[in-house]
């Protein structure tokens, strides 16, 4: 499945996804002095059941890049699991 075939809904705030959707919660953290950061993503269904997740260290130039990398990794997780109805949630103000 390619990202072009996914039904994607971007939402900001804490709530369950619509029935039949998987919700990706993504977040990132970045240290400006070193450029090092970390990202994490969790995926849950409409019942709150954990469906998957990922986390890793990254090196980037900006906090926004870290947040966008977290979203990108979440979408990759969705593609690899065959989830076609996906809602993405991020608390990053700049990425909106």
From TrEMBL:
List residues of the RNase H type-1 domain: 18-96
> Could you state a single Gene Ontology molecular function term?
RNA-DNA hybrid ribonuclease activity
Q: Extract the Pfam families matched here.
A: RVT_3
Looking up PANTHER family in the UniProt record yields: OS05G0353850 PROTEIN, POLYNUCLEOTIDYL TRANSFERASE, RIBONUCLEASE H-LIKE SUPERFAMILY PROTEIN
The protein depicted here goes by the name Putative ribonuclease H-like domain-containing protein
Organism equals Rosa chinensis
């Amino acid at each position: 499945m390619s990202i072009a075939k996914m039904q994607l809904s971007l939402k900001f705030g804490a709530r369950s996804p619509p029935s039949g959707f998987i919700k990706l919660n993504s977040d990132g953290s970045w240290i400006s002095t070193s450029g090092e950061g970390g990202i994490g993503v969790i995926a849950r269904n409409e019942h709150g059941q954990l469906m998957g997740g990922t986390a890793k260290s990254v090196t980037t130039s900006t906090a926004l890049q870290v947040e966008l990398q977290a979203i990108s990794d979440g979408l990759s997780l969705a593609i690899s699991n065959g989830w076609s109805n996906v809602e993405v949630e991020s608390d990053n103000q700049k990425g909106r």
